[in-house]
Structure formats: structure tokens, C-alpha cells
Amino acid sequence: MNTRQIILDTETTGLYPNSGDRMVEFAGLEMVNRQLTRNTLHLYIHPDRDIPDEAAAVHGITLADLEEKNAPKFEQVGRQIADFLRGAELIIHNAKFDVGFLDMEFGRMGLPTVEELGCKVTDTLGMAREMFPGQKASLDALCTRFDVDRSKRVFHGALIDCELLGEVYLAMTRGQFDLMADHGGEAGGSYAAAKIQRPAHLKVLGANETELAAHEAYLDTLDKITEGKCVWRTEADA
Fold first, then answer.
1. Tell me: the pLDDT tens digits for 47-105?
2. Does 23 share its domain with 118?
3. Most exposed residue of 31, 42, 54, 80, measured as fewest CB within 10 angstroms of its CB?
4. pLDDT at position 157, please?
5. Which pLDDT value is given to residue 238?
6. In this structure, are 94 and 146 located in the same domain?
7. Beta-strand (E) ranges in 14-87?
8. Which one from 93, 156, 183, 201 is the annotated catalytic residue?
């Protein structure tokens, strides 16, 4: 898997991109082969309008803050954002909201939409509702479900939300990439490699108690994701 993915989030002045609300923060974290890279784009953006108190209470960003930071307007950074996103798979929680604002802001500049940039959009909100029907699917709820530490999240900032969403997304999709021998691919290859006879000169180091406990905790997480169908434990019990 060589897909370039971007964990993405935005903060805005309100909920309605087609009724005058604007973007005030953008964050994107690049991930390749399920590993975060150093290619990150984080911008505070002057909305060229007021920021209602109810919006500031959510993300903690005020117009005074943006003016003190000398934050650019979207017209100054829109092309940079578009180039950063081009051709990537975008991992977004409640993607309709963020894509709506991006398309609105791009449209004001005559830039291509997210779709026209060749981006695939993966909505983790939809994924969560499908995986856990009838249960809470907010980012906070998913952090709790997957034991992701959100203690540093005081406000709904785009950057911290991206960091949390990255961990949640990896946990949600882990079952697709672990030891699934019957599906082949990377995981199947790893499983098959374990059966190759070990050369006599290689020394075997057994896991200590701490490592074994960590391994069991990891398998517990896989059991949650696969509803008790963790392949490692299935094979061990066979």
C-alpha cells in the first residue's frame, strides 16, 4: 500500500459555508504506508469577518488572536492548501462539513474542488456508524473506545483533532492490515514467513512478562475491532 493519505480537519466561524461562514484554521497530517511523515500543513486563517462567541467557545480562536498572529487570508494560502491535498486520500471525521468549507473557499478563488483535485474522501464518522451501529460516533467517543489519550484536547483545535483522528483511524482499520493470511497481501506474507524454518545460528529471545502483557492488550484491541475474530487467537486455539 503506497497511498498518500492526509488526516484533515478545519475550524470555522460557524456551520454554514454557503451562508457567509469562513475557515479560521486548517490542519493536515500526511501519512504514507500507515506511517505519519514530516509533511504537515497547519495554518491559522483570517476569515475577513467576525468570529461569533459561540464558535470561539468551541475552538478557542478569536479574531484578536488571528490579528495578533498576523494570520493570512484564505486567498493567500488557498493554492498552498490545494497543492498539499492534490491526489491524496483525505481522512476526515464528518467529511461533508470540512469538504463543504474547502470547496467554498476554493470556489471563491477559482480553484478546483476537492473532487477535481483528484482526492478520495474517507469519512471516519460514516465508518464508525457502520462499525458500531446505534452507538456514539463522535471523535471523543471513538477516542474512549480505542483508548486514545485526549487529555491535551481543551478546545476543538484542527491540529490536535488531526492527531487524535490519526490514532483513531489506525485503530479502526488495524484489522485490515494485521495477520489475515486468508486474504494474502502484506499480512499474509508476514504470516507465511513465520512458518519458514529458522536457521540454526539464529538465537531465539523469548518475550518478557511486560512484552507478553502488551501483546495481549494489543490482541484485546483486535478482538474489539473484529468482534472476537482475531486471527492470531483463532490460529492459536486451532
1. 999 999 999 998 999 999 999 999 999 999 999 999 999 999 999 999 999 999 999 99
2. yes
3. 54
4. 81
5. 46
6. yes
7. 23-32, 35-44
8. 156
Q: Write out the binding residues.
A: 9, 11, 54, 59, 161
Count structural domains, the chain.
2
To the query of whether residue 201 is one of the catalytic residues in this protein, the response is: no
Answer whether 110's CB lies under 8 Å from 141's CB: no
pLDDT digits (tens, 9 = 90+) for 142-201: 999 999 987 766 567 888 899 999 999 999 998 765 534 344 444 433 333 333 344 454
In this structure, the answer to whether residues 139 and 216 fall within a common structural domain is no
Distance from C-alpha of 67 to C-alpha of 168, rounded to nearest angstrom:
33
Judge if 52 and 137 occupy the same domain. Answer: yes
- pTM for this structure? 0.73
Cα–Cα distance, 170 to 124 (Å, whole number): 11
Strands 89-92 and 35-44: unpaired
Residues 40 and 121 in one domain: yes
Full domain range(s) for residue 211: 181-198+207-237
Looking at the structure, do residues 165 and 230 belong to the same domain, yes or no?
A: no
3-state secondary structure of 5: strand
Cell of 110: 477559482
Residues of the binding site for a divalent metal cation = 9, 11, 161
| Residue 146 belongs to domain with CATH number | 3.30.420.10
Examine the domain organization and report whether 81 and 106 are in the same domain.
yes
According to the model, what pLDDT value does residue 212 have? 72
